[in-house]
Amino acid sequence: MLTNIENNGEKSDETDKSIVEHMKKILHDTRIYLLSLTVEPICVLIYFGWVFGNTIQSPGLYRRVCEIYYMDDPNVDCYHIDKDHVENNVQRHASLWTLYNALAYLVPAIFADTILGAYGDKHGRKINILLGIAGIAFSEFGYMLTLSDSVHTPYWTTLVFGIFTGATGYIALIPVSCNAYLADITADPDLLTIRSGILSMIQGFSCVIGGYSAALVGNIAIAKAMDVELATYLLALLYTLWRIPQRPGIRELERRSRGLAKEDWMLYVAQFVGCFGGLIQPAVVSYIVQIVPYEEVGRAFSLFGIGANFAYIITNAIYSPIYSATEAWFPGFLFIIITAIQAIAGLAMLWVHFKSKSEGIGKPKEQKRDIQKAISEIGSEPHEDGIFFTHNSRPDKHLTIYDHALERDQLKVDELWGSMSDDGRERMGSFF
């Protein structure tokens, strides 16, 4: 019997330990879940307050529409409409005012959401969420002034508030930014799908709770209900300031890491510097003119044009497959290859520049002339001691490409396409 009691005591202790361990696990999981919460509380506060406030204030707005058209009619009580034709007319006007209010915020919201969405992609979602909360709070403040018995602003002022509210993206910007924030911080697509589904469920659940809460306190004053609504917006604003950072998401950081340009102005500077690339072709043409004899310039330019056409075909045939193969993991990889090729071409240009300078290409040839001797030789044939000379007159000097071309031009005595059998022509300067 004592043994049974001891066994029961041990089992009880084990049960207590298992319960404690289970509770610890639940608390641990709850703590992890609470720490993983980001934008979910924002949707809870916003949609609960929005549905709660709009449910309470909708009869007041209906009454204000009635007062617009029947204020001077003593037979109509806008607090208790008991005539069918009056009720139908008020409903018709109320639907029109609802349409006007929707257009007032929807038109500017289309442009605002586009601009703010692009801004959020680049800089973060915090500012967008704050703007959406501020916009909806500003809109509700306008309705509060209209429904107030002391201020009692005209109903059309809600349209003015709606325009300014639409410029902030209104309430639609908040869930969009929240879902985008989840995409920014969640790298796993499967986990992102789960979290987005939970966020949508929380959004709908908050609307239901807001409507039920408004029904439970249906006799509350409109001003107090709107105070509750604005209080939830304030809590959402403070939570966003505390919990949501203003920084780009994972994908934006990955996109930025793929390129060297970190700021927009760098792209504009690159375009400006790239404009000088058009000077390469005139420089090459000028260089060809200096090293090629005049009678062969046309053929040289033909080869230059053929080479340019081949280069265009080859670059498209090579660059397109490279871009297709590297676009998924590094879209800028092709531009790095192009930069390397251009760097090699730049080094080749530098080598040609210094080589040409050492050989005197482009340097004007000036010879001292004996004026009296030149006058006395008018009408005579040129010879090696005159103003013309051949390569044989300088046998000890190494001739450059430019010297060959210059002598070739000076020795030609026939037409441009003279006989190729003319022994007086120096063939060593030919481009070919």
TrEMBL record:
The keyword Lipid biosynthesis does not apply. It is found in: Membrane. The keyword Iron-sulfur does not apply. Keywords: Membrane, Transmembrane, Transmembrane helix. It comes from the Eukaryota. One of its GO terms (molecular function) is transmembrane transporter activity. This is Proton-coupled folate transporter. The chain crosses the membrane at residues 32-52, 102-120, 127-147, 159-182, 202-222, 265-289, 301-320, 332-354. GO terms for cellular component: membrane. It holds the Pfam family MFS_1. It is a multi-pass membrane protein. It comes from Acrobeloides nanus.
